[in-house]
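dumping this here before i forget
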Amino acid sequence: MNGKTLFTSILLLVGIFSFVSPAYSQSSPPMSETAKQTEALVDKAAALIDREGKAAFSEFRVKGSEWFHGDTYLFIYDLKANVLLNPAFPTREGTNVSGQKDSNGKLFHDAMIQTAKSKKSGWVDYMFLRPGQAQPSHKWTYVKAVRIDGVPGLVASGFYSE
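structure:
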C-alpha cells in the first residue's frame, strides 16, 4: 500500500468512526464560564437537598433567585422519571417523562437518569424548548445524583448553546 492509499484509508476510517460511533461525539460542552456556573449551581443545590430534602424545593421556585432567573432553572426527578420540580414548566411537575424524545429522537430524560445512575454526575445534550419560544434549541444539562428525603433522584440545570 503506497502512502497516498494509506492516508486515504485512514481518513475514511476516521470519518466512519466519527459519524457512526457516539463514543467519538462530544460528551460535554466546551468548558466555558456558563458551563462552570451550571455545574456549581447544581452542586450547590445537591448539597442543599442533602441537608433539607424536599423542604429546599421552595427556594428553587423563587423567580429572580440564584436558582431561577432568565433561562436558568433547576429541575428535579426521581429515578423513575417522575418530575418532582420544574419551576420553568410547572405543569410538568407530577408527570412521568420516561420515553419522551427530543426533536431529534433522543430519549433525553432517560439519558439524564442513566447518567445519574451510572456516573453520579455528567452532561447530557438534547433539543428543548427555551421558555417563551416555539422552536427547540440545543441545550446542555448538567445532572447530579441526589437522595431526596432518602429517595434516589437527580437535580439538574442547563443552558442553551444557541
